[in-house]
Amino acid sequence: MAASTAAASLRLSFPLLSPLAASSSTTLRFPIHRRWARPSLAVAAFKKISEVSPLSIPQEPTQPLADEDTLPAKPGVYSVYDPSGELQFIGISRNVRASVEGHRRKVPAELCASVKVAIADEETPDKTALTNAWKSWMEEHIEATGKAPPGNVAGNYTWVGAPQRPQDLRLTPGRHVQLTVPLEQLIDRLVKENKVVAFIKGSRSAPQCGFSQRVVGILEGHGVDFVTVDVLDEEHNPGLRETLKSYSNWPTFPQIFVGGELVGGCDILSSMAEKGELAALFQN
Ligand SMILES: *[C@@H]1O[C@H](CO)[C@@H](O)[C@H](O)[C@H]1NC(C)=O
């Protein structure tokens, strides 16, 4: 049945480790019917969800969380439950106590009544061990209930917040400001200060031509950390098109710079992507 095939591959939001409550997230495909890689020794160092007793989360902000022994400021995995005991979210954190405190402040009380926590045996478990523990908690929950925690579904920003999208860079604050350095120098500084720069027509979220759209798609598809500059924005980037053409000695847009060097336009980037050459380009 088509529906069950689609359901077999849910898109889940995977809270990456970050110093405080995970603020960045990425998505990962989670094939329900396939087992995760053999349980490693690292996973064995964490308790299973079913082996952990829940701690209640006091709703009153003035009431302290459970003591540090019960809810330590240490790396681990945790699951959060609503007042009826339905699991809402499975998280991973370098500091479980801080993450739970963060949820208590930001997430509605009707989603956040109790928590189960598993801390690693070692003082500083490696990232893989934590990730494996998170995966095995997800698997345990999905096997028991047939569904993913609602808060872990991709695009749900209740628990981890939306990923920060870098804005489009602007060369000037606006036409009203008199430039004290030549535009050429601003471009030079911009491509040298940012590892990957795409000069495109339109903004990153709304490219104004098919080639620019393709470039943004390829870079995002490769998980590249890049900034964009809108060559059509005459208010903030006046004269950019003409100056950039002579700076790069390249007549068309979009133009992609890596490490201060022009790579080329859409065709070059596309063909490098097809040949699998992009990973190497963005590596260094
Ligand atoms: C996100 O997950 C929570 C459960 O933790 C759920 O109540 C909420 O409706 C979800 N939001 C969206 C937009 O799906």
UniProtKB/TrEMBL annotation:
Q: Name one GO molecular function term.
A: 2 iron, 2 sulfur cluster binding
Question: What's the short name of a Pfam family annotated to this entry?
Answer: Glutaredoxin
Q: Which InterPro entries match?
A: Glutaredoxin, GRX_PICOT-like, Monothiol_GRX-rel, Thioredoxin-like_sf
Superkingdom of origin: Eukaryota
Q: Where is the signal peptide?
A: 1-23
Question: Record's PROSITE patterns?
Answer: GLUTAREDOXIN_2 (PS51354)
The segment(s) forming the Glutaredoxin domain are 196-263
What protein family does this chain belong to?
Belongs to the glutaredoxin family. CGFS subfamily.
Q: What does this protein do?
A: May only reduce GSH-thiol disulfides, but not protein disulfides.
Q: What is the name of the protein in this document? A: Glutaredoxin domain-containing protein
Annotated organism of origin: Eleusine coracana subsp. coracana
Q: Which gene produces this protein? A: gb08823
